[in-house]
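COURSE: Structural Biology Practicum
ASSIGNMENT: Worksheet 4, Part C
STUDENT ID: 0417
INSTRUCTIONS: Below are two proteins. For each, the amino acid sequence is given first, followed by its structure token string. Answer the questions at the end about the second protein only.

PROTEIN I
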Amino acid sequence: MIELTITQARQFILAKQGLLGGYRFSGKKGAYDYIRQAGCIQFDPVDVCGKNAELTLQSRVKGFQKTMLEELLYRDRLLVDYVDKELSIWPTEDWPYFSSVRELSRIHGESFPGFAELEREALTYIRANGPVSSDTLPLDGELFWHSSMHWSGNWHKNSKAARSVLEQLYTDGTLVIHHKTGSRKFYDLAERYLDPSLLLAAAPYEDEKAFLCWRVLRRIGALGLLWDKNSSAFLGIPMKADQRRQAFSALEASGAILPARVEGIKSPLYYRSEDDPLMQDVIAEKIDSKPRLEFMAPLDPMLWDKAMIAALWDFRYSWEIYTPADKRKYGCYTLPILWGVRFIGRIEMTADYKGRTLRVKNIWFEPGIRLTKRVQTAMDHAVTRFSRFSGCTTVEGLE
């Protein structure tokens, strides 16, 4: 087991994430390459200064524009919106891996009397008319129904029939999201957009244990380093503690992951064996460690395990969007500020898209952080970049 200092562990994670030194990812191809590396990035519809998936990419991808993600999803079809870590965005090439998830969804849908007839009506309409939303699909009434996917929010309640049927056919894999208008989803037949070699492919694993190992390995790769503990990094993977431990043991025994001991942390942290060349470069001080200042997304893959971030960085971040206003310590939608190998604070910004104005509402620095001229210059440049990403031409509130 290799021994790492806290600084080396940070450098490894940041280098793996493309957040240290020069940009590893650039343009639309870079956005796709990063998502392939991470496995998935979380989607959240809230847009205060950018949606979570967009914010995740802007911190890593040089020259990232929001239209790049839309094109990858809905024109190029290299990415797909689907369940993984909650509702996520992941490479379309991984479609066969989730065949058992779609099968469970189909079985779930069959348990509702009368649902099959409604699905037939919906599919007949879509085949004749193309993409639909819950507002344009002519199915009347409500259903006492809940989705098999907990992120949908339809748990044991009456739901509009059109919405229920569309979500069921979507989780079945019969439909995919054709496009979004704001937060409204439009669906169309998956067979019109996904290659038959993907739609008809058998699951590329022997059994559900192998699928579980694949998913755990994927999450380890998303963070870079991860421990064998209960963690929100595994959200969306249905497993108990003993199943998680067995998956880690199987992955280590197969050589897919390697352990590392980090100073001051009792539990070993694991990384993918394919990343060992990077680990050796970190240890040998052969990586580009020039600091960059970046604003991180609230649900960024690197932040999925907040306990591990606290242990490695002594930084405690909480997304306070659902915290009552009078109980918030910081702002409703704050973004962690990364400078080099340190989190130096958090920033709250809002984007007025109509007025094309980015407003910096507040900045909170961590204790002991000195706002040197170098840091201030880096902050100014980062805000300027962020305003371009947001489509804003004016910045207010930055002194």
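PROTEIN II
(use this one for the questions)
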Amino acid sequence: MKQKILSLVLVGAALTMHALKTDACTGITLKSKNNCHILARTIEWGGSELNSQYVVVPRGYEQQSYTPSGKTDGLKFKAAYGYVGLAVEQKEFVAEGLNEEGLSAGLFYFPRYGQYETFSENNAANSISDLQLVSWILGSCKTIEEVKQAIETVHVIGIDPRASTVHWRFSDLSGKQIVLEIIDGKPHFYDNPLGVLTNSPGFEWQMTNLNNYVNLFPGTAPAQKLDSIQLASFGAGSGFLGIPGDVTPPSRFVRAAFFQATAPQQETALETVLQGFQILNNFDIPVGIEFPAGQVPVNIPSATQWTSATDPTNRVIYFRTMYNSAIRSIDLKQINFKKTKYQAVLLDEIKQQPVVNIKVR
């Protein structure tokens, strides 16, 4: 474990280099007519490729948290429940996942607003790094209440003080969803019936900010008269005129909330998953808009490196990537988590969008 600290420091530095320009995640939640809750989200990073992998974690798999000092190891934890996750940078850093009991968990960047506890060697055995908290929770809990109880037993720490803090969303089979933010070293839980989450500022502020857009409504604005002049919409959708279109977290939160709320409800879970991907098409971030001209740091197709959708009811996790827009899925019901081996597999072995040639006869 201690031999990996250097690589973790380098990871922390990489995740900090362009922090204010490239941290972004957008999460939405949709409900089908047959009462399936679908959690969909994007993950963005424009500073480098995230080396994203899917991991399959069997019951009984043992892990240990990293700590920033490198002198001591953190919390040891064993998976009571099997799970599948999407990891970034290293296979241990699961950013989004689903366990066999239907608990969903994901982390979202939260720069400048969160603050973890200061790491203490005396608390090392009960300390869990922020980037490993999703893994620990998915292997340990099956309900929101269990998540809350578990968080109270540990010290959540950062691996590298230069890296961005994160906040988390959790949802269980009941459809209940919460957000966890650690402020001044203390965990704060917020109910999230709306099911939308982005980044900074804090969740409560984002919800309050929605009130600034009380004028928005679906459909077309009615014609009006301005003195003797007739004013009419140029086209459909003018009820949303003024919705923010930039990629800042507050603007994405507003846009996600209104797009989600006005989406027609679908019959089935799969139809709802596909709808989630369609909505999140609107949140793909081109790399070039995040950096000054001529200063784009890496040649990748998009700052939105992958998009996922999770179906807790049917235990399926879906994803697509910046290299391959085809939707792929992993069905947890087909995995024997008692017998399967730990696996970590790159999301994309071929890093280029497949193109299908249509042969016209």
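ANSWER KEY EXCERPT:
Q1: DSSP finds seven helices and 19 strands in the chain.
Q2: Helices lie at 5-17, 19-22, 133-140, 144-151, 203-209, 249-261, 269-280.
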